[in-house]
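Let's sit down with a protein and look at its sequence and fold side by side. Go ahead whenever you are ready, and we will take it from there.
>
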Amino acid sequence: MPRALSSQRVEARIYKSTGSWYIAKAADGKVYNARAKGIFKIDGITSTNPIAVGDYVAMDIEDVQEESAIIKEIYDRRNYVARTSPHNKHQHHIIASNLDQSFLFATLKEPKTSQGFIDRFLISCESHHIPAVIIFNKADLYGEKEMARFEYLKEIYTAIGYTVVLTSVEKELGLDEVRVLLRNKTTLLSGHSGVGKSTLINKLFPQFNLRTQSVSDWSGKGLHTTTFAEMFDLDPTSHLIDTPGVREFGLVDISKQELSHYFPEMLKLLVNCQFNNCMHTNEPGCAVKKAVGIGSVSEDRYVSYLTILDTMEDKSY
């Protein structure tokens, strides 16, 4: 990816997008205000943001004094997480690229994160081979009912290979575990507004002073469609990418036929289905339905799969 550049050309990584301008940090640590010249089309995808936070780019220095530059090239992405654009469901919005892992912040109270939202996020990560961690935050608000729900969900998701962490800023619960998980990785942080993501990160890394969002701001329909992300350096080898809260997570570039491939517990059973194009709905000899029946695949996860499949069929994703 990196290669020898001319004296006026430097390589950098995108740390923030503000629409037509980007904040880019060069390999020597210098920060530039950069703009793109021309139109970048990456891998033929229709994206609202062809340049994303986390991208590695080559830039020509436009003005050394003003620290401005023109982005000339985007290096190949190792991976990325995308969702449907909040403004146009037929377009992608790339949330961030070149990730080592993603953290989904969820809550079981004030506000409650649905299992469907969790599963959609995990599917998107699976489709680009990005390890995901589920962080159930605000544990100090959980009563017996919420704790029982947490233990139930933890059992489901850890059984299929996900790391699940229970956290509370108030109780200082799980904070050390989160800090360790962030080491030596580029991590995407995501979740609904009001789940306490920024509050938790501010507790761990007060130097960033991330803007927090109150729960009351989360309820209005159509809010929080701003989709700019920003990257922060924890140390030379550890970076986190903070994202504004999202209401919905629309899947992109996933067909109905391949949806089950992104449910790890289903993927390993597909070879045992009677039909190689089995959709795990009404077909005879379906290994997935058999596994649900005997409890080796979570019924809730299967219902989640069917629900997402239905939304894909009516093109409302």
Remarks:
- The chain is about 25% helix and 25% strand.
- The radius of gyration is 21 Å.
